[in-house]
Amino acid sequence: MGTKLCLNVLDRTINYFKYFVPLKPQCAINKIIGYHRQFSSYEVKNHKLKDSSKAELISNLNFKSDADALPFLKLPVKTLIHIVKTTQNDVKCGYCENRLYYLSSHIKVPSPILSEQIVRRVFIYTLSFDWLENSLKVLLDMNVEGDRILRDLWVLKYHHKTIEERLVRVKNFGITNLYPWMVRCSESILNRYVEIFQETKNILGENMSTKMYLAERLNVSSELIEDMYVKAPALKTIRVTKLKKFLDFLIKEGFTVEDIAIKSRILAASQSTVKKRLSKLRSLGMTEINLNVLCRSRKDFQKYCESIDTSVKK
């Protein structure tokens, strides 16, 4: 607490200095000292009062450990008062001893970890318990993983019927890997996700992975694909739909799968950029184009084009 107080004093000192900077240096210093003499005593007393008030309120929240309680010290007194009232009502009605532990036990996340998140989402204590219980139940019944709910607690603000309708709709498309964001996102984003999922399924079928697909298209082993991932990590995160379109484009442009496999870094580049660079090089009279040239930085590619242009003029 002493460190926080020092930081507050430092911040206030900086603000005072900005205010008094037009004054002569010694005059400015005297003014700052005068202000601190006036407020320092009040500052210390005020912090002590606030801390004791918070500690008293937190003691009524039925925490099982200091680690669970500590994040709640960040909250203002007004918020803590509301949380105490909610908690006392939950206990009185036989719902739970604290919503922190109720959520923790259901989503299987350690309470100290959840506590750090829940103080950023204090709406958890403003919802009716029935609302919270029903929304959480639908998510768990739909097999949404607990750690995903932890990272997206906002989903609990949605009515359980809204959550169910959205997730059932997604599941009907054959998508079993469900996320809270699917409830919260716009229709356009959800439709685009479903579209990509269906395109991916059409390419990979039921069992094939992206790695297997790439190995099959390039006529190489899956071990070699792993080596490609090491050399170009971005390749591992590219959607198979983009890979297919890019491979089809490169083959149509006259590059062999053997050449693409050797210079696989090209697949992590932007297809639109590669297309523009191919047009540029061909306009300079290039017929044999190295894929590595297409992956160069903008500056290096520009220098390369200038060197070709110069040699052609000679």
Question: Could you write a compact summary of the structure shown?
Answer:
The chain has 314 residues and is mainly α. The chain is 68% helix and 0% strand. Helix 1 (2-20) packs antiparallel against helix 2, helix 2 runs parallel beside helix 4 and helix 5 (99-107) packs across helix 6.
Description:
Helix 2 packs parallel to helix 4. Mean pLDDT is 85; it is low at 1-29 and 31-49. The chain is 68% helix and 0% strand. It has helices at 2-20, 25-58, 66-69, 77-92, 99-107, 111-118, 129-141, 146-151, 160-171, 181-184, 187-204, 210-218, 222-231, 240-252, 257-262, 271-283, 291-294, 298-313. It contains 18 helices and no strands. 15% of the residues are buried. The protein is elongated, with a radius of gyration of 30 Å. By secondary structure, it is an all-alpha fold.
Structural topology:
Blueprint: H1 2-20, H2 25-58, H3 66-69, H4 77-92, H5 99-107, H6 111-118, H7 129-141, H8 146-151, H9 160-171, H10 181-184, H11 187-204, H12 210-218, H13 222-231, H14 240-252, H15 257-262, H16 271-283, H17 291-294, H18 298-313
Strand content: under 5%
The helix fraction, in percent, is: 55-70%
* Beginning-to-end CA distance, first to last residue: 75 Å
Question: What's the shape?
Answer: elongated
Poorly predicted residue ranges: 1-29, 31-49
* Structural class determined from secondary elements: mainly alpha
Biggest beta sheet summary:
none
Taking all residues together, what is the mean pLDDT?
85
Number of helical elements: 18
Gyration radius over CA: 30 Å
Give the helices and strands as they follow along the chain: HHHHHHHHHHHHHHHHHH
Number of strands: 0
